[in-house]
């Protein structure tokens, strides 16, 4: 690692965790890499799979009324 990179790392490690996370994300995004493209494609495929599932009415939770009824029943069972 170059002296500049070591100096930047030392400075970065002094940042609070949220700032370090944002900096890491920005640095990662700035590096062109084939893995990035495959990850982007994997997420796009997953989003499309979930969209198709929702359009078919699969994988959906209870309706709002059913959900509230289930919560009320669970609360009545709680001592």
Structure, explained:
The chain has 79 residues and is mainly α. It is built from four helices and no strands. The termini are far apart. The mean pLDDT is 89.
What does this entry show, briefly?
The protein has 79 residues and is an all-alpha fold.
Summary keywords:
mainly alpha, 79 residues
Strand elements, count: 0
Tally of helical runs: 4
List the uncertain runs. none
Structural class: mainly alpha
Span between termini: 60 Å
What does the largest sheet look like? none
Radius of gyration: 23 Å
Element layout with pairings:
Blueprint: H1 3-13, H2 17-30, H3 34-55, H4 64-77
